[in-house]
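in:
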């Protein structure tokens, strides 16, 4: 399979997908992406289903089947997971256009993860010309960048049927796969005090901001780098004016955990927070959104298999990881082998510096096709 010759066509498709801007919260925009991807999958030989959604863009399921029935050990599909949404609002393209320069490709979503979508579609088109030996299901989701609340049930449903899941999120800058990811949680701590005039009735007030200040210190101290557990009070708000004792203050907290069980331990600690001042109340809400994806024995075994397949293509594949979550976290929690970061290598995602290496588009398509062909 000559993937080098496909680079111009891959770049052209990437440009087209980048220029269909698709911010997560804009349903009509994500729906346009879904329609375009559905059409592209049909042209590449898939049976396509568009799953309508009301609270997010529509989802696309594309199924490729081998020309002849697969061997029994290859009957379960490999699942490819890609998300169509980006973090960039409509109009970003005007100041951050699609651009190819010195071996790099820039533009909103080139790396996260329209480059990965192009890799998946290219590998499948190449295999569909008679080389597919097992079923492959590709799911394109609309809301990964905002927590995958709408797509999670479908991701989990398709993952349970799969022999392996491959996630087309960006590769690390050196091309390493993402073999571990931290779990991600969000909590809100709300303090209620009592309002009073800051001059006339100071002693009758209960200052919610003062209480929250105590709690912020306690919350940050739950961070344990040794265990890979971090808490970040990332946003606080409270009060109405300097001459009013504030009756409410709120903190929003990001939690990252590496080890199973840590999220429960931290949630318990947050719920056990007690007021320091008399007469105030603390309310804690939230929880873990994405479970952790540790580099455990199952992940190591899956990585070693893919590493051997890559070696057959003279590629030296490394195992890496990140504190950020993705849809791979949901799959890992089900006990299904999953490898992430199969999209092109690049850097700067979620920023105006976002780029991929053009070479990596070709290399990843070659690698993905080889995995789909060789995975037992
Ligand atoms: Zn992504």
């Amino acid at each position: 399979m000559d993937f080098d010759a496909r680079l111009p066509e891959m770049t052209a498709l990437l440009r087209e997908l980048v220029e269909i801007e698709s911010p997560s919260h804009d349903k009509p925009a994500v729906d346009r992406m879904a329609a375009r991807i559905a059409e592209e999958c049909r042209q590449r030989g898939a049976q396509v289903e568009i799953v309508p959604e009301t609270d997010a863009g529509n989802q696309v399921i594309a199924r490729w089947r081998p020309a002849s029935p697969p061997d029994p050990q290859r009957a379960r599909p490999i699942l490819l997971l890609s998300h169509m949404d980006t973090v960039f609002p409509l109009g970003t393209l005007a100041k951050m256009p699609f651009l190819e320069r010195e071996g790099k490709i820039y533009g909103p979503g080139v790396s996260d993860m329209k480059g990965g979508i192009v890799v998946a579609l290219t590998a499948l088109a190449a295999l569909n010309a008679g080389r597919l030996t097992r079923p492959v299901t590709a799911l394109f989701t609309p809301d990964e960048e905002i927590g995958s609340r709408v797509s999670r049930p479908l991701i989990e449903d398709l993952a349970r049927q799969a022999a392996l899941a491959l996630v087309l999120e960006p590769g690390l800058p050196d091309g390493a796969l993402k073999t571990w990811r931290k779990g991600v949680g969000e909590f809100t701590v709300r303090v209620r005090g009592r309002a009073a005039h800051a001059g006339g009735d100071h002693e009758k007030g209960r200052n919610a901001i003062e209480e929250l200040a105590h709690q912020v210190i306690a919350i940050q101290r739950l961070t344990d780098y040794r265990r890979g557990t971090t808490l970040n009070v990332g946003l606080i708000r409270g009060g109405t004016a300097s001459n009013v004792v504030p009756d409410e203050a709120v903190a929003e907290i990001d939690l990252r955990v590496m080890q199973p069980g840590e999220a429960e331990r931290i949630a318990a600690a947050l719920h056990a927070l007690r007021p320091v001042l008399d007469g105030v109340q603390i309310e804690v809400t939230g929880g873990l959104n994405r479970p952790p994806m540790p580099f455990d024995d199952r992940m190591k075994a899956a990585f070693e298999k893919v590493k051997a397949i890559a070696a057959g293509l003279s590629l030296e594949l490394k195992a890496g990881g990140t504190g950020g979550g993705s849809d791979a976290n949901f799959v890992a929690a089900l006990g299904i082998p999953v490898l992430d970061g199969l999209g092109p290598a690049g850097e700067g995602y979620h920023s105006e510096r976002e780029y991929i290496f053009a070479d990596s588009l070709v290399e990843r398509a070659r690698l993905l096709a080889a995995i789909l062909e060789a995975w037992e």
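note: The longest helix spans residues 110-128.
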